[in-house]
Amino acid sequence: MGVFERFFGLDEHDTDVRTEVLAGITTFLTMSYIVVVNPAILTAFPDDGVPGGIAIDGFTPGEVFQMLAVVTIVTSAIAMFVMAFYANRPFGLAPGLGLNAFFAITVIGVLGVPWETALAAIVVEGVVFIVLTAIGAREYVIKLFPEPVKFAVGTGLGLFLAIIGLQAMGIVVDDPATLVALGSIASNPVAILSVAGLFLTFVLYAARIRGAIVLGILTTTLVGWGLTAAGVFSRGVLTPESIPQAQYNIAPLAGAFVGGFGDVEAFSFALIVFTFFFVDFFDTAGTLVGVGQAGGFLDENGDFPDIDKPLMADAVGTTIGGMLGTSTVTTYIESATGVEEGGRTGLTALVIAVLFLASLVVVPLAAAIPQYASHIALVVVAVLLMRNVVDIQWDDFAHSVPAALTIIVMPFTYSIAYGIAAGIVSYPIVKTGQGEFDDVLVGQWLLAAAFIVYFVVRTSGILTSL
Question: Keyword Transmembrane helix: yes or no (predicted)?
């Protein structure tokens, strides 16, 4: 215990081993759903109608699912070891929600990019992040981040996740007349059980029961299996058709990024990296600042001291993750739950990492969890992410416009990047319209210009035409 106290500086952070361990357990319980949800989003399920995802010849979706579960665990643990021993911050990291959907649905599904090439782009992005973090460039850009956009990113991301989750649960369906509509909930057993599981999870969370999200997912899954075992529904309705054998071999995924470098020519590949770069950069920045705000880590100017260290953990995690076979790693907003329990140092992150590794023993059970049950977590997290909206200065038009555009554009275009870009571009324009041109930094104009280029790349058809 004395070693931990000295290494992590517990006394100077006004904490102790017991508090840090409790904080780590709390954060693990609130974010451990990613072990199931990340592979659920990244795996290609031909029968669910959602484009994109990773499919490997010779392996069933269930086996790919388990490979991705292992990769998710290992990648998260590595990133958190860096967070613990280098950054000494109590933050949990894992492949980011929303970012994984962008990877699987937009890049692989819509753009038709091979998943190996998408992983290669993640690796390149991670290496670029390591370099930029080492020279302090990421910290500088984050300081240029307009405040209204910073506080709106979490809310917009929440709405984006809500649509994905509600669709998987059968609550929201597509409609040719209105784009989206309410599903046939009363006649759909998946939707009925999903709604029941969702509200059970809300009740558990409201009762401050640790691990409420995990308990909600597991309870919903057990009810689905129970109804199937009782003969109420046949296999394939509330449960997977079959459960594959345990699949710990991640060789088909690990190192696959190398082959991805040969699938596209340089310019189109650079545009893909550019797109990942912008999405990841600003999502990570917003999450770190948001969690830092919840933990009281920000100084009087709203800046995060030594933010380059947790950013390095994120960059290393992203690079390793791409090499092993998963999408971009980011800091989790659920880290705020451990911070609320008193976690203040890297010992909290170390505890989370160890618990993630311990969860490897239950990977074979992951494929037994149906997608509608795992996606309950997305809707719950979406609700939690709405909290940042109260920090926006809605009475200031130069704040309300960028914030509102960020929140609105993100879910309605099914793109995190579009939402962030809309907020960044609008901020200096509206500021100038208010006669506050002098308040806009040159760097913020440059960010806006860069995002205009981004909009051109993403909407002109350049990517799909190459």
Answer: yes
